[in-house]
């Protein structure tokens, strides 16, 4: 590098305009030992020497380096100003952390009005106790020693705590080096000494050591003393680590700002939106390869874009077709483009509503929250510039004659290209979407006004001067680790991996198979990246959030390993040896719904079997409450001065309503079983691992919904309502801090629906033997809806009928789809629509918001379960004691009944319940219509109505202690022979004998009737263990 004549300099500027440093807990001061430089060459993110952790297993920090370039009058870079070129640079850095001083996170589309730390300095512009601000710090010349960036955080406490946000120094050439904090995050509340997180995003009296702020420079020519003042500052981000090395997000911050610059120059839509020439190897191929790379950190992406997926764009066949701009390959280009979701611009808003599903790409959540079918704000899109480039490519309007150079060092590029390359390299790995709230930046980065005028070259990609230190990151999660834990499966897998291949799996095969086959051999070896942390995301509470704040540095990094030219392989390395594979609250039933995509027939069958478990959980849940309602049949209804007549009528109506819901839950059980049977599975009900236990939780619910057998009180009705909440209400339901916390049965079934067609495309034999004669069918009258023509049984023989069956389940529970009627909403009305939905549950006002229907069918013949229970609750609230309940226990167990007589009856009920499940299970194996009729009417209905119901009515009337009655337990009963009817008969005979011996004539006569009913049951044979 030769000296640069100051007279040739028109202006100077700092590059990159935005530098990204990342926190780490290593304390080593030497490069490579405790920290490493961020990449300065586009497309290069080399694994640091020794890996991303130091010799003690602590995470190295990523340093951001800033340089100063000289430009001529034509805005062309003529060289870097540094010690070698004869210049001295004075650097000034001012970063801050304002997270504690801003508004609580509520989402991009929700108003922000509640402050974080509401008890401390409640005037938003005067909250200095909540801002960690070290002030502006300076370094000068080359090899300047380190200057720490220390501020204070006081929160609502009396004493402030010193907080280290990083440090700055210069290298041998006088370039600025910024190191971020050490990943510290904690509470200063003396009442929270264990640093327990209590909120997703807005933890009171917590701080973390991320930051952002300005980087300024003043340049002096050493020989002449001529000074140069820089007109534009750069910005530095002190961000969380990136755990996925060399894996791009679908949309990066570079893409977002490039799009914002394009919009400022050419407008946002229509003919005004003009884009330059499209080059395949520069503009298209890198974009198409992003989902392939993401397949190594996300199971959903691996299903479609992994090495065995139909969208593996690295295959020779795909590469040839996608790079061919002739009409011969047009059908392939357009088939890919047809799956891309429209960008978020006004002209596509109506169409985006129809694309709000997992069919379109990217299959990730949006700025409006977790993926919700029918709500376009909850599905991320590419930028308009990315989309328009793909549109041109799909139409064949692209060239293939330019191949971007693959330099690994910024110095390898010509001087005049270096500033732009530094700009791109610094932020091409930063998440640009979705931003809810984001990892390094949040949604204000999608606003073109966030950045300076792109028409001034040295101002492009720079934050507006309206921003102050700390403004860019202040709306991010507090602390960052809490959101880092929460954002699983559909958010930022390139930075926060979801599913990974452990290094041990790679080492086990790498020397045994050809390099290009390694990727395929590892395809089914994925595990959850955050394994070992609490599963509170799935089970409720914030244990996992707390674990992430304490253990983030123990998790592994995903890095590329050498595995041939065609099929790259990414492997999780440097996971701390002491990190367990299972958290303290590990639940083997959870992973299928969190990190495991449904991509094979086997997984589809597993999900459908779990669907049977979900449906089976609701049947005893509702029946128990129904039996608890006292029908007052033994009282004189004519004596109405105590309201007995009203109570009798109320009890009759309530029992009728709940019984109707139970009959539909039985229908749903049958439908789920039909689908499972049609795809080659065999439904299983009588199994200790399938039959629910109480107390328990709904098997898949996030966070879990407790299931308790309780009397039909107002509290229990509220639990029913929560169970059946519609999808969008659940997704927008807020806790006290305004954070979304719920997911639904509908979402579970949606994941199954979306898997059907792709699996069928991959395996056309999916419905090869649907066994329709063994299915529950409408013409056989085996189950009926509560209202004729309001939906019922579906015989499943293909994808269409399978989706119809699953849709019936969701509609009858939650109600008809909530996006109906939103297609023509303008933005203001759509916002009001969402607000109405979020208040619907609280107000119990159904049908007042556009598209929120209380019916489960288009003909409005039948209320959904959700609406049914809301109406039932209203009836109960009209008169506080409108019906009465027996004093039944909560979650009874047969073994806990001390009285042998009652215990025996309770066991008989358990046996009858299991006999019913055996009967239903058996029907999925019987094709003969005559035999089916005998089993349905002689065994299934006979057991439900002639045995179970009278046994339950018997139990709820039996005192078992002071102010308490018995109740049915719905427990697993182990039959020991292949003739379970005989065992059931023996149990009831034993109970009858006990009551007879006790001279209890009335109970004995009731049991005699039940015994006769058992004797008349059609006997089934079941192979028991």
TrEMBL record:
It holds the Pfam family LodA_C. Residues 608-832 form the Iminophenyl-pyruvate dimer synthase domain. Transmembrane segments: none annotated. It comes from the Eukaryota. This is Ferritin-like-domain-containing protein. Residues 15-231 form the L-Lysine epsilon oxidase N-terminal domain. Residues 374-498 form the L-lysine epsilon oxidase C-terminal domain.
């Amino acid at each position: 590098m030769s000296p640069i004549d100051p007279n040739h300099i028109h202006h100077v500027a700092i590059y990159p305009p935005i530098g990204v440093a990342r926190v780490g807990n290593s304390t080593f001061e030497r490069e490579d030992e405790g920290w490493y430089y961020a990449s300065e060459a586009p497309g290069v993110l080399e694994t640091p020497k020794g890996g991303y952790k130091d010799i003690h297993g602590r995470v190295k920090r990523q340093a951001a380096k800033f340089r100063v370039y000289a430009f001529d009058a034509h805005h062309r870079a003529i060289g870097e100003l540094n010690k070698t070129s004869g210049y001295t640079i004075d650097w000034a850095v001012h970063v801050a952390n304002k997270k504690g001083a801003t508004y609580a996170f509520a989402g991009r589309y929700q108003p922000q009005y509640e402050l974080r730390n509401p008890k401390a300095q409640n005037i938003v512009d005067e909250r200095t106790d909540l801002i960690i601000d070290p002030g502006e710090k300076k370094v000068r010349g080359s090899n300047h020693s380190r200057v720490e960036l220390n501020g204070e955080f006081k929160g609502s406490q009396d004493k402030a705590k010193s907080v280290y946000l990083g440090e700055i120094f210069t290298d041998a050439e006088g370039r600025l080096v910024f190191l971020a904090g050490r990943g510290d995050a904690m509470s200063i509340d003396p009442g929270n000494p264990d640093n327990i997180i209590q909120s997703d995003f807005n933890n009171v009296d917590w701080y973390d050591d991320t930051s952002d702020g300005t980087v300024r420079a003043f340049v002096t020519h050493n020989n002449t003393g001529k000074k140069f003042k820089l007109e534009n500052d750069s910005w530095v981000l002190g961000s969380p680590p990136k755990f996925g090395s060399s894996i791009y997000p679908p949309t990066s911050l570079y893409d977002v700002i490039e799009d914002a610059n394009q919009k400022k120059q050419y407008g946002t839509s229509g003919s005004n939106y003009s884009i330059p020439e499209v080059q395949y190897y520069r503009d298209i191929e890198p974009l198409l390869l992003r989902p392939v790379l993401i397949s190594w950190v996300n199971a959903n992406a691996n299903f479609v874009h992994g090495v065995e997926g139909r969208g593996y764009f690295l295959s020779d066949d795909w590469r040839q077709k996608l790079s061919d701009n002739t009409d011969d390959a047009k059908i392939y280009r357009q088939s890919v483009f047809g799956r891309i979701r429209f960008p978020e611009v006004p002209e596509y808003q109506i169409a985006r509503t129809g694309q709000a599903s997992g069919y379109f790409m990217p299959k990730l959540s949006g700025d409006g929250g977790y993926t919700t079918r029918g709500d376009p704000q909850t599905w991320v899109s590419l930028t308009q510039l990315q989309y328009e480039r793909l549109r041109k490519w799909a139409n064949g309007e692209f060239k293939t004659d330019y191949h971007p150079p693959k330099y690994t060092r910024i110095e390898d590029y010509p001087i005049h290209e270096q500033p732009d390359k530094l700009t791109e390299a610094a932020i091409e790995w930063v998440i640009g979407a979705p931003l809810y709230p984001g990892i390094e930046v949040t949604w204000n980065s999608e606003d073109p006004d966030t950045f300076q005028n792109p028409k001034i070259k040295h101002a492009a990609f720079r934050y507006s001067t309206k921003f102050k230190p700390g403004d860019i990151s202040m709306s991010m999660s507090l602390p960052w680790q809490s959101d880092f834990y929460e954002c699983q499966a559909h958010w930022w897998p390139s930075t926060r991996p979801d599913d990974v291949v452990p290094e041990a799996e790679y080492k086990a095969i790498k020397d045994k198979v050809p390099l290009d086959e390694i990727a395929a051999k590892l395809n089914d070896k994925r595990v959850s990246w955050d394994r070992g942390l609490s599963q509170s995301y799935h089970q409720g509470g914030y244990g996992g959030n707390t674990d992430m704040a304490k253990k983030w540095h123990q998790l592994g990094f995903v890095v590329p390993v050498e595995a041939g030219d065609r099929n790259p392989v990414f492997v999780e390395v440097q996971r701390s040896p002491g990190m367990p594979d299972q958290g303290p609250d590990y639940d083997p039933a959870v992973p299928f719904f969190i990190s495991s995509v449904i991509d094979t027939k086997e997984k589809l069958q597993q999900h459908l079997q779990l669907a049977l478990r979900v449906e089976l959980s609701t049947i005893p849940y509702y029946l128990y409450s129904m039996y608890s309602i006292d029908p007052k049949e033994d009282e004189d209804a004519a004596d109405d001065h105590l309201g007995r007549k009203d109570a009798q009528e109320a009890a009759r109506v309530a029992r009728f309503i709940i019984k109707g819901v139970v009959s539909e839950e039985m229908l749903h059980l049958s439908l789920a079983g039909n689908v499972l049977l049609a795809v080659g599975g065999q439904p299983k009900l009588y199994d200790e691992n399938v039959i629910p236990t109480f107390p328990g939780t709904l098997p898949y619910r996030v966070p879990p919904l407790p299931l308790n057998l309780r009397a039909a009180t107002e509290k229990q009705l509220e639990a029913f309502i929560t169970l059946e909440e519609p999808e969008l209400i659940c997704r927008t339901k807020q806790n006290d801090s305004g954070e979304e916390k719920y997911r639904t049965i509908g979402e579970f079934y949606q994941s199954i629906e979306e898997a059907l067609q792709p699996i069928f495309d991959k395996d056309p034999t999916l419905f090869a033997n649907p066994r329709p004669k063994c299915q529950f069918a409408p013409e056989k009258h085996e189950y009926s809806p509560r209202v004729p023509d309001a939906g019922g049984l579906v015989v499943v023989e293909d994808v269409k009928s399978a989706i119809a069956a699953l849709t019936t389940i969701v509609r009858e529970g939650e109600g008809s789809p909530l996006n109906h009627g939103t297609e023509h909403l303008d933005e203001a009305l759509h916002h009001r629509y969402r607000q109405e939905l979020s208040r619907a549950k609280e107000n119990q006002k159904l049908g007042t918001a556009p598209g929120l229907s209380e019916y489960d069918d288009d003909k409005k013949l039948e209320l959904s379960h959700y609406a049914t229970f809301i109406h039932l609750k209203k009836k109960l609230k009209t008169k506080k004691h409108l019906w009465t309940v027996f004093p039944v226990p909560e979650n009874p167990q047969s073994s806990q009944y001390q009285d042998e007589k009652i215990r025996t009856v309770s066991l008989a009920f358990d046996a009858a319940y299991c006999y019913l499940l055996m009967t239903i299970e058996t029907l999925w194996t019987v094709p003969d219509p005559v035999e089916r009729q005998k089993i349905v009417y002689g065994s299934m209905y006979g057991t439900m109505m002639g045995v179970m119901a009278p046994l339950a009515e018997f139990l709820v009337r039996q005192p078992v202690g002071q102010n308490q009655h018995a109740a049915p337990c719905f427990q697993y009963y182990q039959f020991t022979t292949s003739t379970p009817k005989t065992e059931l008969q023996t149990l009831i005979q034993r109970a009858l004998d006990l009551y007879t011996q006790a001279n209890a004539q009335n109970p004995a006569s009731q049991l005699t009737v039940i015994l006769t009913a058992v004797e008349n049951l059609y006997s089934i044979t079941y192979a028991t263990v």
